[in-house]
Amino acid sequence: MLGVCYYPEHWNEEWWPEDARQMREIGIRYVRIGEFAWSRMEPEQGRYDWDWLDRAIEILAAEGLKIVLGTPTAAAPKWLVDLYPDVLPVGEDGKARLFGSRRHYTPASEQWLSETRRIVEVVAARYGRHPAVVGWQIDNEFGGDDTVLSYGPEDAAGFRNWLSQRYQSPQRLNEDWGNVFWSMEVNSFDEVIPPVGAVSETNPAARLDFWRYASDSLAEYCALQAAIIRKHSPDRFITHNFMGFFHNFDHFKLAESLDFCSWDSYPLGKVEHFPLPEAERVRWYNTSHPDFSAFHHDLYRGIRNDRFWIMEQQPGPVNWAHWNPAPANGMVRLWTWEAFAHGAEVVSYFRWRQLPYAQEQMHAGLQRPDRQPSPGGLEVAQVAREIEVMGDLPPVERAEVAIVLDYEASWITRIQPQGDDFNYKLLLHAWYEAARRLGVDVDVVAPGQSLAGYKLVLVPCLPIIDDRSLAAFKATTAHIIFGPRTGSKTTSHAVPWELPPGALQSLVSVKVSEVSSLRPGVSLSLTGSKASGVATHWAERLETDLPADLTYEDGSAAMVTQRNCSYLGAWIDGDFLRQIFADYLKAEGVAMIELPDHIRLRKRGALTFAFNYGPMPWTVPFGGILFQIGNEVVGPHDFACWVDG
Fold it and tell me: 48 in helix, strand or coil?
């Protein structure tokens, strides 16, 4: 089904009935409202104005539209900030991040938590049982605008409390952090300060714990709101709209209080923000990379209950990237169907109409400011007609390949990259892309999650191997490929005494004796009986008695295998990865097909979808199939869907 984000408070009330009617007519069924409207809900402390929102909900409901109501905590009103300035987050420079945008709060503030309880309580009590309100979105884009880490007095106090519960004594803290180095030892938790503002780099163990604390605080904040909503609004779903390529908190942990995840899909904006080579940015500038959206569909489907929504789908140019092109003709339709192919229940577009004022005035909507359909709006109407023809889609089945995403890996490799261009997101993306180029579906799983049923498990980088992860690896019959820096840290961000890969040595008899980070332009040749290529970014010297699958020029091992586990101690590119993955997929009996770099396949039950991100047509190479949408020639920026005949 289709949805849209709507802001009745932005528009002349006389337009609301016509807007609702047009939404229904083009196939919209869900409408998200309210997530930035605190100043209209409560213009002054304790004085509420619900009349406008009551009318908006009734008008939308009269057209049969189902409402997702947002809690308004992502944009505190000015009067609240003036009364309680300690709610503001504090940057690394020690200065408060002031009113004038959004996300200007820290969940460490007790006053902020009190204000949150109050506004969520009154909104949920008023609308929680309204028949048109079918679900809730908590807050908006947690952590957006770099707001996970805050360094004010409230945050410092919360951090100390978190540490006291984790370590119980300052002596244990000193030991685990290695505070004997540089005389960093403390005599009490009260002496601990956030790891920022020092003369040179701060203790990586302290930084990792501070990130854990901040992540836990957000998860607790989300759970606080969810508990209030469930009390007043039974039998309605609760979700949150996460973002793409955003790793600043543990999404798996935060989602525990949700019914399912949603995410905000901005494919073109992410091309500009992701560290792709410039030639790749140019190539995909108006389509996006074929694996950007797909990866996040698989991630958010897997995080919570095998369900997900797109809460905000890009419908045209955005306003916040370095460059903001219009999507190529057909891409809004393609992105929508790609989301459905990966299991999305609803695709909701941001926004109904382009707003002609304020910060996002250059952000497209389904309508232009003059209330006429935008190019994206016309494509959405086509999608709605196709949905009517297709009917209900079958459920998404478990893939045969899984990739492990670890948020702490992202934090650890940013805290201590050891090479300026070691980027966990880029490594993760390269492994996912390499598998998808072989035509296989991929599930994204958490560390320690059961791996039963998979045939190939990819672990691009998992620095900390905890007991749950090790048990999951030992229990699976799948072949597992571990990438560089796996098992390289203890839970306290130290090098294991037994050397990396630490606890993983019980599965693969190998030690990492030395690592080299490789500057741009430097590469090391790797050769093997079934694959060859070069290492860039990162190369590890392995000590092992196992035969080498890949070797460096000096004959030393770069990759080894023991039973169903392989350890790859180098960063290698996508072509090289595909050679390796294809060999193991073949051995595991997984059907695959090498795809052009602009074509991706996705199965949903008996349906197979093909998506063409490129400028040239692609001919489907399979016979005996029945097309549901499209035909055997998939045009540029188009897709096809078929079942086996």
Answer: coil
> Using one digit for the tens of pLDDT, what is the confidence trace for 311-362?
999 999 999 999 999 999 999 999 999 999 999 999 999 999 999 999 999 9
Helix (H, G, I), strand (E, B) or coil at 156: helix
Helices (H) and strands (E) in the chain, counts: 18, 26
Residue 32 is labelled as binding a ligand? no
Could you give the CA distance from residue 284 to residue 637 in angstroms, rounded to a whole number? 11
Cα–Cα distance for residue pair 279/159, rounded to 1 Å:
43
Pick the CATH number of 599-644 from 2.60.40.1180, 2.70.98.10, 1.25.40.10, 3.40.47.40: 2.60.40.1180
Strand segments (E) across 442-544: 442-445, 456-459, 479-482, 510-517, 524-527, 532-544
Length in residues, the chain: 645
Fold assignment, 401-587: Rossmann fold (3.40.50)
Which spans in 391-497 are helix H? 407-415, 424-436, 467-475
320 annotated among ligand-binding-site residues: yes
pLDDT at residue 645 tops 80? no
Q: Tell me which residues are annotated as active site.
A: 141, 312
Task: Tell me the whole-structure pTM to 2 decimals.
Answer: 0.97
Pairing of strands 347-349, 241-242: unpaired
- How many whole angstroms separate alpha carbon 394 and alpha carbon 601? 16
pLDDT 10s digits, 400-452: 999 999 999 999 999 999 999 999 999 999 999 999 999 999 999 999 999 99
Pick from 65, 630, 595: which is nearest to 337 by CA?
Answer: 630
CA distance 416 to 420: 9
The answer to whether the annotation marks 174 as part of a ligand binding site is no
Please count the other Cβ atoms lying within 10 Å of the Cβ belonging to residue 82: 10
The predicted-structure confidence for 62-75, as pLDDT tens digits, reads as follows 999 999 999 999 99
Peptide bond into 636 cis (omega under 30): no
Q: Are 452 and 488 in contact (CB under 8 A)?
A: no
